[in-house]
C-alpha cells in the first residue's frame, strides 16, 4: 500500500494504535514470571478471584485484561504447548476492542481468539465464535477446549442436525459454530411458540473468524427460511420455450445504433435486455398484447429469469445437476451448497432449462441478512488474513475498524508478477510445464482454480502429462481438510477451487523448506483481490519459504469483461507470439484495476441489498419484540385486548355509521347481547363504551369455565395471527422488491418508493393483527370443563378412536398440546387459510 507523505511523517493510524497495544503487551509480559511460578491450582484460584470481582462489578473487563491475558498465555503453554506470541496478544486486544484483527494465514488466529474469548466469557453473557464450516468449528473448539475448561468455562459446538441439544449448547459460556447455524437459530427462535423453546440467549460478544468471507462474500445471500407458495409452475416451462426461441444479438459499439437480435446480454451487470423485435416476438409467443402491462408482470418476470438461466448461467460453473436436481455452486468456495436455492424464480427457470422437475416455488417465512444478524451483537469482532482491501466496507457497514498486525516472523515468500498468455490453452500448457518441473524436484505445489470446471480441465491436462495429483472441489469436499493438510508433503500436487480448505493449516517439513517451500500457482485472477491473497497465504507461514505466481490469459472472464481492451492492445503492440507470455508490473497493475472495478460493483450490490433489508429490519425488530412479549409469561395482555376491542368497535362503527345497526350486527354475528333500551337513552360516546363493555363481558363469559388460563389462550391467538399476517407481509414485500425496480423508469428513486410502500404495508399489518385477533377471540369456541368430561367419556367408549385428548401432543406435529394447537376450535378457515 502506498503511504501519503503525511502518513510517512506522522505514521499511519494503524502504526499509532500498534504502539499503544505494544505498551500493553509489555505490561502483560511483566506478569509472566508471576504466573509461571504458580501451580495449576494456584492459577485457577487467582483466576477465580478475578472472576469474582468481575461478577460483583468491582472490576471491569478492561481492569483485569492484563492478568487474564497473562493467565491464558500460561495455561496455553501448559495445556497446549503453545505460548501466545506477543503479536498474538495484540490480536487478542484488537478482538476485545471490537475490531478486525488482520493477521496473515498461519499466524495462529485460532489461539489468538482464546484471549478475547476467556476475557469476555467472564461477563457470563455468552461468547460466540463463528467459523466458515462445521469442520473448523469442531476443530477449533476441540483444540482450544483445554484452556477454557481449565479455567472453568463450558464449551459448546453447533453442528448441523443436533437440534435437540441446541438450547444446552447455547447455555454454554462459549459457543463455536458456523454463521448459518447461528443465523438460522435466530430466525427459528422467532418462529417458536413458547419462551422455553428459544435456543439463543443474548447476543453479547462474537468473534467472526475469516470475517471477510462471512461478512462480505456471503453477505450477498441473505438467510431465508421459506415455505411453499402453492402457485402453479407451468409458466416457467412456457417462459423457457419463449426464451429459447429468441435470438441472442450483440449491442452495437455505437450507442445510437440499435442492437441486433431479440436480446442482448450485459455480462457486466449480469442482466438481459430485450430489443424491440424481442419484445414483439415474445408477445406473440405468449399471446399477449403488452408484455409490460401490470397484468403480465409475472410473465415478464418469468421470461427475464428464463433468459438469464439460458444465457448467464452455465452448468458445472454456476450450478451442477445432481440426482436430477439443480444445485447451486458457491462461487467463492466452489462447493455445492446443500439445500440452497436461487430466489425469485431463477431456480425454477434453471430447472425448466435442464428439463428436470420444477420444484415448488417458495416464499419467505423469515429472513435476515448476515449484516443485520451480526449487528445485533453488543460487541462484534473479527479476524482474517485479508481485510484491508475491504476496510472501508467494514467501517461503513459494520462500524468495524481493521487493524493490521505484523507477522510474528517476517514473510519471505516470493510473490512473482503475473504471467499473461493470449489463450487459455497456452496458459494451461505453461502451468503444466511448471508443475512438471516442480514435481520432478519434489517441491509441493498447490494450484488454485476459479471453478470446478477449470479444476477438471487442469486435471485432464495433468492426467495427460502423467502427474499424480489430488483434486479438491465440491464433489469430494468431505475429505477436503484431510487432503489439503498434506498439500505441503514432498511431491504433492493439489488442485483446489479458490477457497476450498480455507482455514486448514498446511505444514511443511525441513526437507521441503530446503526445496523452497510450498509453491502456489493461481490459474486465474478472482474477482476480488482478497481471494487471491488468501490463495497466496497458503504458503510462507511463520517465516517459511515459498513462491506464488498467477498465470492468466486474455480469455479469462475477468480480463475479457473488465479491462481486456488495454491488455489486448499491449499484446498486439508487443507482437507476442503463440506460447509466449508477458510479465510486467504494468500488467499486474492493470489486472488489479480490473479487480477493483468488480469489487466496487459487488460492494454496491451488497449495499443495495442492505439498504432494502434495513427497511425490513426495523419492521422485523418491531414484530420480533412484540412476539417476545407474547411469549413472556409475565406479560399482561388484558389491557391490550381491551384496547384492541375498543379499536375494533370503532372500526365497525365507521362501517355501520349507526349504533343500533351495529349492535344488531354484533348480536347476529357473534350472539353478543347488547342492552338496546339502555343504548337508546345514551350519548354517542357512552354508546361506544357500552358496546365495548358488552363485548368484554361476552369474552369473559366465554372463558369462565375454560380449561386453560384466559391470558394464555389470548396470547396464543395473538401469536398465531401475528405469524400469519407477518408471513403475508413478507410475501408482499418480496413482490414489492422485485416489482419496484420497474418504477425506476418513471424517474422515481426505487428505494424511496420501496420505503414508502413498505411503510404503508406495515401500518396495514399492525392494524390487521389487532382486528383479526379480536375477531378470532369473538368467534373462537373455547373448550370448557364440561366438554372435556364428555370428550373423555367418548374416548373411553371408543377406545380405538384416534381422537386426541386435550393434554396430548397435537397430531399436527407442532409439538404443542392439542388444546393449545388445533384444539383451539374456531373458524380458522377464512382467516388462516
Ligand atoms: P491461522 O488461522 O492464523 O491461519 P491457525 O490458527 O490455523 O492459523 O494456526 C496455524 C498453526 O500455528 C497451527 O498449527 C497452530 O497450532 C500453530 N500455532 C499458533 N500459535 C502458536 C504458538 N503461539 N506457538 C506455537 N504454535 C502456534
Ligand atoms: Mg484460521
Automatic annotation (TrEMBL):
It is an enzyme of class 7 (translocase). It holds the Pfam family P-loop_SecA. The keyword Nucleotide-binding applies. Its EC number is 7.4.2.8. It catalyses: ATP + H2O + cellular proteinSide 1 = ADP + phosphate + cellular proteinSide 2. It is found in: Cell membrane; Cytoplasm; Membrane. It comes from the Bacteria. Its main location: membrane. ATP binds at residues 88, 106-110, 505. It is a peripheral membrane protein. Residues 3-583 form the SecA family profile domain. Belongs to the SecA family. Part of the Sec protein translocase complex. Interacts with the SecYEG preprotein conducting channel. Has a central role in coupling the hydrolysis of ATP to the transfer of proteins into and across the cell membrane, serving as an ATP-driven molecular motor driving the stepwise translocation of polypeptide chains across the membrane. This is Protein translocase subunit SecA. The gene is secA.
Amino acid at each position: 500500500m502506498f503511504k501519503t507523505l503525511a502518513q510517512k511523517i506522522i505514521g499511519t493510524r494503524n502504526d499509532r494504535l500498534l504502539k499503544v497495544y505494544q505498551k500493553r503487551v509489555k505490561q502483560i509480559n511483566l506478569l509472566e514470571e508471576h504466573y509461571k511460578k504458580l501451580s495449576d491450582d494456584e492459577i485457577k484460584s487467582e483466576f477465580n478471584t478475578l472472576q469474582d470481582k468481575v461478577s460483583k462489578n468491582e472490576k471491569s473487563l478492561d481492569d483485569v485484561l492484563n492478568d487474564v491475558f497473562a493467565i491464558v498465555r500460561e495455561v496455553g503453554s501448559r495445556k497446549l504447548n503453545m505460548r501466545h506470541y506477543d503479536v498474538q496478544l495484540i490480536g487478542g486486544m484488537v478482538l476485545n476492542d471490537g475490531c478486525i484483527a488482520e493477521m496473515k494465514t498461519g499466524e495462529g488466529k485460532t489461539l489468538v481468539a482464546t484471549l478475547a474469548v476467556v476475557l469476555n466469557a467472564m461477563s457470563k453473557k455468552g461468547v460466540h465464535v463463528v467459523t466458515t464450516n462445521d469442520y473448523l468449528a469442531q476443530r477449533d473448539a476441540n483444540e482450544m477446549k483445554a484452556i477454557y475448561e481449565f479455567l472453568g468455562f463450558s464449551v459448546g459446538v453447533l453442528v448441523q442436525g443436533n437440534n435437540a441439544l441446541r438450547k444446552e449448547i447455547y447455555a454454554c459460556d462459549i459457543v463455536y459454530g458456523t454463521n448459518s447455524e447461528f443465523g438460522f437459530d435466530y430466525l427459528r427462535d422467532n418462529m417458536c411458540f413458547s419462551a422455553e423453546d428459544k435456543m439463543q440467549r443474548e447476543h453479547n460478544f462474537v468473534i467472526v473468524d475469516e470475517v471477510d468471507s462471512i461478512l462480505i462474500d456471503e453477505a450477498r445471500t441473505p438467510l431465508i427460511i421459506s415455505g411453499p407458495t402453492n402457485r402453479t409452475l407451468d409458466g416457467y416451462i412456457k417462459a423457457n420455450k419463449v426464451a429459447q426461441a429468441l435470438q441472442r444479438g450483440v449491442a452495437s459499439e455505437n450507442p445510437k445504433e440499435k442492437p441486433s437480435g431479440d436480446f442482448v446480454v450485459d455480462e457486466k451487470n449480469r442482466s438481459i435486455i430485450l430489443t424491440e423485435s424481442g419484445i414483439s416476438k415474445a408477445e406473440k409467443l405468449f399471446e399477449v398484447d403488452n408484455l409490460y402491462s401490470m397484468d403480465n408482470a409475472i410473465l415478464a418476470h418469468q421470461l427475464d429469469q428464463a433468459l438469464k438461466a439460458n444465457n448467464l448461467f452455465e452448468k458445472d460453473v454456476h450450478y451442477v445437476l445432481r440426482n436430477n436436481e439443480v444445485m447451486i455452486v458457491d462461487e467463492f468456495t466452489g462447493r455445492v451448497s446443500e439445500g440452497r436455492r436461487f430466489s425469485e424464480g431463477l431456480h425454477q427457470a434453471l430447472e425448466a432449462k435442464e428439463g428436470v422437475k420444477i420444484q415448488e416455488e417458495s416464499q419467505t417465512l423469515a429472513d435476515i441478512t448476515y449484516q443485520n444478524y451480526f449487528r445485533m451483537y453488543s460487541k462484534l469482532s473479527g479476524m482474517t488474513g485479508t481485510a484491508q482491501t475491504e476496510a472501508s466496507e467494514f467501517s461503513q457497514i459494520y462500524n468495524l475498524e481493521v487493524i493490521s498486525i505484523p507477522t510474528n516472523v517476517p514473510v519471505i515468500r516470493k510473490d512473482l508478477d503475473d504471467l499473461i498468455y493470449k489463450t487459455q490453452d497456452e496458459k494451461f500448457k505453461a502451468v503444466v510445464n511448471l508443475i512438471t518441473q516442480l514435481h520432478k524436484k519434489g517441491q509441493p505445489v498447490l494450484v488454485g482454480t476459479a471453478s470446478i470446471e477449470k479444476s477438471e480441465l487442469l486435471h485432464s491436462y495433468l492426467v495427460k502429462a502423467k502427474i499424480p495429483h489430488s483434486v479438491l472441489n465440491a464433489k469430494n469436499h468431505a475429505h477436503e481438510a484431510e487432503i489439503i493438510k498434506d498439500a505441503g508433503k514432498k511431491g504433492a500436487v493439489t488442485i483446489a477451487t479458490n477457497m476450498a480448505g480455507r482455514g486448514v493449516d498446511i505444514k511443511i517439513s525441513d526437507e521441503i523448506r530446503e526445496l523452497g517451500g510450498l509453491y502456489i500457482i493461481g490459474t486465474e485472477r478472482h474477482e476480488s483481490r482478497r481471494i487471491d491473497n488468501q490463495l497466496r497465504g497458503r504458503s510462507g507461514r511463520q517465516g517459511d519459504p515459498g513462491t506464488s505466481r498467477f498465470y492468466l490469459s486474455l480469455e479469462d472472464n475477468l480480463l475479457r469483461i473488465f479491462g481486456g481492451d488495454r491488455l489486448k492492445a499491449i499484446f498486439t503492440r508487443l507482437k507476442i507470439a503463440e506460447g509466449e507470455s508477458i510479465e510486467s508490473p504494468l500488467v499486474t497493475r492493470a489486472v488489479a484495476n480490473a479487480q477493483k472495478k468488480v469489487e466496487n460493483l459487488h460492494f454496491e450490490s451488497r449495499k443495495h441489498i442492505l439498504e432494502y433489508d434495513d427497511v425490513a429490519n426495523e419492521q422485523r425488530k418491531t414484530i420480533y419484540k412484540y412476539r417476545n412479549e407474547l411469549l413472556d409469561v409475565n406479560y399482561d395482555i388484558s389491557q391490550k385486548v381491551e384496547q384492541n376491542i375498543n379499536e375494533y368497535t370503532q372500526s365497525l362503527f365507521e362501517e355501520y355509521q349507526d349504533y343500533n345497526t351495529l349492535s344488531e350486527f354484533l348480536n347476529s354475528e357473534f350472539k353478543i347481547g347488547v342492552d338496546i333500551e339502555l343504548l337508546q337513552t345514551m350519548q354517542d360516546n357512552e354508546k361506544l363504551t357500552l358496546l365495548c363493555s358488552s363485548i368484554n363481558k361476552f369474552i369473559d363469559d366465554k372463558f369462565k369455565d375454560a380449561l386453560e388460563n384466559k391470558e394464555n389462550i389470548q396470547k396464543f391467538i395473538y401469536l398465531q395471527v401475528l405469524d400469519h399476517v407477518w408471513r403475508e407481509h413478507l410475501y408482499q414485500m418480496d413482490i414489492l422488491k422485485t416489482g419496484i425496480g420497474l418504477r425506476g423508469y418513471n424517474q422515481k428513486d426505487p428505494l424511496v418508493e420501496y420505503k414508502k410502500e413498505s411503510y404503508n404495508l406495515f401500518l396495514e399489518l399492525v392494524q390487521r393483527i389487532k382486528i383479526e385477533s379480536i375477531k378470532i377471540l369473538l368467534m373462537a369456541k373455547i373448550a370448557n370443563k364440561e366438554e372435556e368430561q364428555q370428550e373423555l367419556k367418548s374416548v373411553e367408549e371408543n377406545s380405538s378412536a384416534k381422537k386426541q385428548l386435550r393434554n396430548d401432543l397435537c397430531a399436527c406435529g407442532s409439538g404443542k398440546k392439542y388444546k393449545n394447537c388445533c384444539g383451539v376450535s374456531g373458524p380458522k378457515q377464512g382467516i388462516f387459510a
